[in-house]
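Hi F.,

I've been meaning to write this up properly since the lab meeting, where we talked about keeping a consistent format for the predictions we share between groups. The idea is simple: the sequence comes first, exactly as it goes in, then the structure tokens exactly as they come out, then a line or two of notes. No screenshots and no reformatting. I'm using this chain as the first example so we have something concrete to point to.
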Amino acid sequence: MVALELSEQKAFEWCLNPDCGHGRVVLEEGVQLTCEICEWETCVKCKVAWHKGKTCLEYQRGLRR
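Output, unedited:
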């Protein structure tokens, strides 16, 4: 029940690791989120695994090719 209530908050982000299932409220600035449970890195803006070495714009441009 608590997880459902938290997930409805605007600042809540689920871990995108399919084997994790945890999430947290993100209060800090930035787009890179590291799960405190499994250490999976996520891009909060793009909603994908962290695109290491690329900005969000570079990542998005790569999808359009």
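Notes:
The mean pLDDT is 85.
The longest strand covers residues 12-14.

If this format works for you, I'll send the rest the same way.

G.
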